[in-house]
Specification:
The protein has five helices and three strands. With 97 residues, it is of the alpha+beta class. It has one domain: Orthogonal Bundle (Arc Repressor Mutant, subunit A), CATH 1.10.10. Strand 2 and strand 3 form a beta hairpin. Helix 1 packs antiparallel against helix 4. The longest helix is centred in the last third of the chain and has 26 residues. The termini are far apart.
């Protein structure tokens, strides 16, 4: 998993909303799909992209698959962005004085 996979997964508004739904707890694909005006196949593809980026985990229970956030990857992205922001601020101060 690379940062480009994570950023690509986060670039789509439906995938961001799926992550937003999952912050309240685990949901099945059907429960997730009920929040969107798209096909089940489209939701499945979005879930696959999020899973490939390691942003979510899945657990099979009987005939259902439940999805939940993988906060470790989100924390890594937040740290990277915070570090990047700090570097930008340092360069602005160095160039402006």
């Amino acid at each position: 998993m690379g940062i480009q996979d994570t950023l690509r997964a986060l670039a789509d508004p439906i995938r961001r909303e799926i992550l937003n739904l999952l912050k309240h707890g685990r949901l099945s694909a059907g429960e997730i799909g009920s929040h969107f005006p798209v096909t089940a196949a489209s939701i499945s593809r979005h879930l696959s992209v999020l899973k490939d980026a390691d942003l979510i985990r899945d657990t099979r229970e009987g005939k259902y698959i439940y999805y939940e956030l993988n906060t470790t990857v989100l924390e890594e992205v937040m740290l990277w962005i915070a570090d990047l922001k700090g570097e930008d601020r340092h360069e602005e101060n160095a160039g402006g004085t």
